[in-house]
Write a structure and sequence with these properties.
By secondary structure, this protein is an all-alpha fold. Helix content is about 75%, strand content about 0%.
Length: about 300
């Protein structure tokens, strides 16, 4: 337990350092974007005095290192500043959008894990069969397909032509189905390919052949001896794909008008809302780091041979 706590403390420190590095990169990148945010907020017809007042109000007249120090000081107290677009606290707007993005990402992750693992196991159990070849083509299509194109195709088919599901928004029943399918398509392909490769490696080992020789059923051999020992790379892939889904939510939420962090990020970038962009990117980064930490901690429970410290 002591070694585990030391490992956990080490990872938490590394996570904080990573977030600090992300904050530096985001802080600098949003300030090299073309255009004057004060002019964007004030409007094209605003006077120079009004633009100057807004620039001073936002602290944009100060040197960059002073602006960053102020940003870190606020961040240490959980204050991400005020949105330049709405004049509302960034934290309040984030808290209103985080549940929608997490709901979409979690549902997409569940679809990716379930669909990808099942398809990969079946393909590994019957290598070079018709299903295996179909899965190879389907995963290649899923990996290569642009998210926005798939989203538009699903809208045309299921929302416009068949009228089964709503095309956009989050108010109507079933509105999350099309965004979740769009977001999960890429991850299902990745998880399926990783599961197939891991299962083929495990099923070819001696202990699996011994289990079959002892008379165990094929289902129990594959599920208990095969899948259980192939879970480490599968869990890693699913965890990493959750971070990919959070990033992919930017395009998916824009296509479907889903009121999450991704759509808010796009709106904030176009309006030069520095505080909101910084808060959103840091939130995305923190969620991704937490998922990776949780995956690392799961390793010891999946494989008893793994010990921390």
């Amino acid at each position: 337990m002591t070694r585990f706590r030391a490992y956990l403390a080490q990872r938490l420190v590394a996570s904080l350092v990573t977030l600090l590095g992300v904050s530096v990169i985001v802080f600098l990148m949003v300030r090299v974007l073309p255009g004057d945010p004060a002019r964007v907020i004030a409007g094209l017809l605003a006077s120079e005095d009004e633009v100057t007042r807004i620039r001073v109000q936002l602290g944009l007249d100060r040197p960059l290192h002073i602006q960053y120090a102020i940003f870190l000081g606020r961040l240490a107290h959980g204050n991400l500043g005020l949105s330049a677009r709405t004049s509302e606290p960034v934290t309040r707007e984030l808290m209103a959008r985080v549940p929608n993005t997490l709901k979409l990402a979690l549902l997409s992750s569940a679809l990716a894990a379930l669909g990808g693992v099942v398809a990969g196991v079946i393909a590994a159990a019957r290598p070079y069969s018709g299903f295996d070849y179909v899965l190879s083509v389907a995963t290649l299509f899923g990996v290569s397909m642009p998210v926005y194109w798939l989203g538009l195709m699903l809208i045309i088919v299921f929302a416009i032509q068949l009228r089964w599901l709503p095309a956009a928004g989050a108010e109507e029943t079933g509105a999350i189905v099309l965004p979740a399918l769009t977001l999960a398509a890429f991850s299902i392909a990745i998880v399926a390919r990783m599961t197939r490769a891991s299962m083929l490696e495990i099923l070819g080992q001696d202990f699996v052949r011994s289990a079959r020789a002892k008379g165990l059923s094929e289902l129990r051999t594959i599920a208990w001896h095969g899948l259980r020992n192939a879970m480490i790379p599968i869990v890693t892939t699913v965890g990493l794909q959750f971070g990919t889904l959070l990033g992919g939510a930017v395009l998916t939420e824009s296509v479907f008008g889903w009121p999450g962090m991704g759509l808010l990020l796009v709106d904030s970038i176009f309006s030069r809302d520095y505080a909101m962009v910084q808060g959103l990117v840091l939130t995305f980064s923190a969620l991704f780091i937490l998922i990776n930490l949780a995956v690392d901690l799961l390793y010891a429970y999946i494989d008893p041979r793994i010990r921390y410290g």
